Amino acid sequence: MNTLKPAIRAQGLSKDYGEGNTFVRALQDCSFELNAGEVVALLGPSGSGKSTLLTILGLINEPTTGDLWIGDSQVIEAGKVAQDVNDVRRQELGFVFQRSNLIPFLSAEENVRLVLELDEISPREAKKRTKEIMAALEIWDRADNAPNKLSGGQQQRVAIARALINEPSLLLADEPTAALDKSRGRQVMGLFQTAARERNAAVLVVTHDHRALDLVDRIFMIEDGLLDTESQFKPSEFGVIGK
Amino acid sequence: MNLAIRDVQNDLSRFALTAVGLGLLLTIVLAMTGIYNGILQDATALPDSLGCDLWVVQRNTRGPFAELSRISPDLEDRARAVPGVRAARSYVSHTIQRELPTGKPIRFTAVGLSWPDDRGERLAIVDGRALSQPHFECIVDRSLGLSLGARLTLGRDVYEVVGITEGLLASGGDPAVFFTRSDAQAIQYDQSNEAIRLDRESRTRRFNESSLKNNEALRRRSLEANVSSPALGPPPIAAVLIDVMPGIDPEDVRSQLEEWRDITVYTQEQQDELILGGVVEKTKKQIGLFRGLLVIISAILMSLIIYTMTVDKIHSIALLKLLGAKPQVILGMILQEALLLGGIAYAIAILIGNATFHLFPRRVVVGNEHRLTLLGIVFAISVAASIIGMRKALAADPNEVLAS
Fold first, then answer.
1. Pairing state of beta strands B151-154 and B54-58?
2. B317 to chain A, closest Cα gap in Å
3. Which of A155, B121, B228, B371 is most buried, by CB atoms within 10 Å?
4. What is the model's pLDDT at position B271?
5. pLDDT reported for residue B227
6. Each residue of B52-111: pLDDT tens digit?
7. Quick one: pLDDT at residue A240?
């Protein structure tokens, strides 16, 4: 693991909501690094701050304080987004959600290609890369199908293809296996692992699902906004017996 | 890929139905514009077609198109004697509603031409000819539905259609039919035999009771079964139309005529202004107001449609934001959909208009300038309507994607 290059570095991220009686500290002084090519699971009970951390890393919400670097580029400085949010999202980030969240009026292929076209990649190049990644994820044969014509697992593969096509530095996944059975859940986690290795992306998976934790490289725990990255949790501690 | 087109294709039937509905609404807007223009053109078509420089009408009246004007036919001769006057013609008109032998009701404005000086040559005759004899011929507007050679029974006489005009309507929208003045008045003052007998009896009794009863000439005149009313003088006319000599300013002639205390004189332009400012003013305002309201309703409806379309895909918009779409991509999609909707609705309105406006009972005048104006209005409405959708889209929160 030590040979992997740091892709993400967070320093002192905190997030406060409300004030007075309604004050809540959702995230407390979180600092960590994610390396390129590794898959990290973020575990914690409901309300522990998982989603808050995810939205900050995805530049959806700003932290109250803290800094964030993606590669060598500082994207959050003293709690403020320091770069064009849209540029960073298009070029550095990928998202996968519990539901596939595909755009219903686009075909599977268009849903994936959209990311490149939003980044003004030429249509020819975009189509080529879309075909490659969809073929790699074994979903190219459903390229022309509308999302509602795909099974849950196929939709999730399309969503993963969409998240990976821009070769992001950081792939954020929010409960990506919650709606899938064990076999499909493991399949998806396997795809993350492959993507991390082959495409050199850091993958942070927020999950309640312990069934595929043996496929992640590290496990972070979060509770009451406090992130524990040092405890070196083992999958077996969460009841995961084997692959 | 074009997101707007793809979104439209996704629910094409709904979009098409919305476009057709909006198109029908724009058709009504266009029709209102055409009817408005038609009213303006119809109102001045008849006086303009008569082609004169001055209108001599009853003192302190606004002319035969605005109110009743009765002047003596002698005024025609008096006017001819005024320096600078090249020609003077009498003008009479009245509205007639009859039933054809087929049972079809017809309504028209009968106009009397000053035979033999005016045979209708100045009218825009598109088929047939002008009047060639002092009686029993007429020139009708095509909108009356009569063809050349058709015979029209009015009063005691039958009139043959010898000429057809186009677009010559009275301000009320009724087609104009041109007769010689004497025929027009014969039709106007036609009475049944019983009415004539009763009138004659009444006149004879009054005459015999008067101090003039020993005047034989007057007695004979009072017994005539003529069409004149009153019987002791020629029937009045509505106006005298004056043409001035070339090189003479109509205003100079007008100022001379205005010195006569029994008449009022208008130039052709003033006559038109009186018609537009008075006779059709309320109708014009009503139609104009209605048209304005329809434009506002179209704008509101289109705004609601665009807003609803935006709300329907707010999740996709939030997702696009999360994927890093620039604001102009999202706003462009909404604007393009609004313009597409407006454009298709406009095309539908033009097509329906072209196919149906000639079937309307009143004339609908729609020119290219009106079509272009509507296009401009539709464009403005589309842009304005999309702004509401854009505001909603800009407010879309990428957090919605995570929450769903």
1. unpaired
2. 9
3. A155
4. 86
5. 42
6. 899 999 998 888 887 888 888 889 999 999 999 999 999 998 888 988 888 888 899 999
7. 55
pLDDT score for A2: 44
Locate A168 and state its tokens: 């992001």
- Where do the structural domains in chain B lie, given as residue ranges? 3-42+282-403, 46-279
SS in 3 state form for chain A? CCCCCEEEEEEEEEEEECCHHHCEEEEEEEEEEEECCCEEEEECCCCCCHHHHHHHHCCCCCCCEEEEEECCEEEEECCEECCCHHHHHHHHEEEECCCCCCCCCCCHHHHHHHHHHHCCCCHHHHHHHHHHHHHHCCCHHHCCCCHHHCCHHHHHHHHHHHHHCCCCCEEEEECCCCCCCHHHHHHHHHHHHHHHHHHCCEEEEECCCCCCHHHCCEEEEEECCEEECCCCCCHHHHCCCCC
What would the pLDDT profile of A117-132 be if each residue is shown by its tens digit? 888 888 899 999 999 8
CB contact under 8 A, A118 and B398: no
Min Cα distance A162 → chain B (Å) is 9
Write down the ipTM of this complex: 0.83
Domain that holds residue A177: 6-238
Average confidence (pLDDT) over B272-286:
82
CA atoms in the 13 A half-sphere facing the CB of A36: 15
C-alpha–C-alpha distance, residues A122 and A116, integer Å: 8
pLDDT at B253: 93
Instruction: Note whether A101 contacts B399, CB cutoff 8 Å.
Output: no
Asked if residue A1 is part of any domain, the answer here is: no
Cβ separation B399–A55 shorter than 8 A: yes
A243 occurs within a structural domain: no
Which of B217-226, B233-242, B328-337 is predicted most confidently? B328-337
Q: In a mutagenesis test of the A interface, which of B15, B323, B399 is the best target, namely the one with the most A β-carbons within 10 Å?
A: B323
- Chain B hits for A58, CB-CB cut-off 8 Å, are 322, 398
Chain A / chain B CB contacts < 8 angstroms: 72
In a domain, A221, yes or no: yes
B19 has a pLDDT exceeding 90? yes
Cα–Cα distance for residue pair B117/B91, rounded to 1 Å? 12
Cβ contact B319–A101 (<8 Å) = yes
Percent of chain A with pLDDT over 70: 93
CB-based contact, A88 to chain B, within 8 Å: yes
**Candidates B10, B327, B329; nearest CB to A105:** B10
Beta carbons within 8 Å of B185's beta carbon, 6+ residues apart: B92, B112, B227, B235
Kindly list the residues from chain B whose CB atom is less than 8 angstroms away from the CB atom of residue A110.
1, 6
**CATH number of A53's domain:** 3.40.50.300
CA distance A242 to chain B (A): 30
Flag whether residue A103 sits within 8 Å of chain B, measured between CB atoms.
yes
Distance CA A128, CA A123 (A): 9
B314 and A101 Cβ atoms separated by less than 8 Å: no
Residue pair A108/A158 in contact (Cβ under 8 Å)? The answer is yes
What is the domain count for chain A? 1
Given an 8 Å threshold on Cβ–Cβ distance, is A97 in contact with B402?
Answer: yes
Specify if A192 maps to a domain: yes
Compute the nearest-CA separation of B375 from chain A (Å).
29
pLDDT band at A5 (very low <50, low <70, confident <90, very high): low
